[in-house]
Amino acid sequence: MAAARPFRACSCFFSSNLFVRRCGLHVRYRHREQLLSDYGTALRERGCGSPEVLEAVVREIEAEVQRRKQLIHQSTERKAIIASRYKRKHPEVYVLQDSFLAPEFLEIVSYCTSPDAHLDGLLRYTESFSDKRIYRLPVFTEEFCRAFVEELENFEQSDMPKGRPNSMNNYGVLLNEIGMDENFITPLREKYLRPITALLYPDLGGACLDSHKAFVVKYALHEDLDLSSHYDNAEVTLNVSLGKDFTEGSLYFGDFRQDPSPVPSYIEVEHVGTQGLLHRGGQIHGALPIASGERWNLIVWMRASAIRNRLCPMCNQKPELVEAEGFGDGFTESAEDDVPETVDLCSLW
């Protein structure tokens, strides 16, 4: 086994998959002329084509680029403050235990780690949706979800500094900043999820998902109600509904790796409390508005450096690596001959 390499980000992180809120559109941005060339029609269709509005759009984009350039430093500062000052309500939820996991989920993991495990056998334990390789499975117990949400609410109500998951979600928690990466999310990915994704997504590095970004998003009336169509910076995504009581707000899924707005046709998948949806990160998806109540969702973007080192999923180019903190965006520096075409990618890492 090769020594672990430091994780990196792709330089496109600063300028790819930028969400223009006033137009409901994701864009890649290099300069104004490129923006008009690539997205002029879409901007005009959304009422953002006039010179005045376009100028405001460019300012919004450039402000987001600058914000992203400050993220690493700001996140490190927040994490240090939280570690030294935050008083946890349920300290037990920070260390993953089998008792947090649904018995049916443990049964699935047991099957996937057995010598005779195969895809058809695994599918008998899950619910599949159309041909889009979207799967529902039980993940947590109700007791754990209740304690976890109480912990998240306790943090939200505290005076701690808070980073938000991304430019689209204004309410939520970055789990690495509150100290849940090492003893909760990492073992969840390595010990429990990877045996499942190895069978479901072998072509996406399901057997060698070696990093992640994990966060919780919150939807509520008078806050974030929905989520526009997008795709994730991940090979495989886990989305678990933690509660609380809510109505409507189903997820919708479109095509794979297409322009995320608009979504021409899609299927709807209802959230079920304590259960998770596994899907390809590149699957276009979004969340319809909730009608009442409040919903918390755990999102884990899982990444395989052996896959993304070849092609960045956000800019569709060979990644140009920059320094990053922690797992970065899941890229690692590797020599050109580290990933020969004829060898199982995951066996190399």
UniProtKB/TrEMBL annotation:
Alphabetic keyword roster: Dioxygenase, Iron, Metal-binding, Oxidoreductase, Vitamin C
InterPro entries in UniProt: Oxoglu/Fe-dep_dioxygenase_dom, Pro_4_hyd_alph
Cofactor dependency: L-ascorbate
Molecular function GO terms recorded: dioxygenase activity; iron ion binding; L-ascorbic acid binding; oxidoreductase activity, acting on paired donors, with incorporation or reduction of molecular oxygen
Residues covered by the Fe2OG dioxygenase domain: 210-304
Keyword Oxidoreductase (UniProt): yes
Alphabetical list of Pfam families matching this protein: OGFOD2-like
Protein name: 2-oxoglutarate and iron dependent oxygenase domain containing 2
Species whose genome carries this gene: Cairina moschata
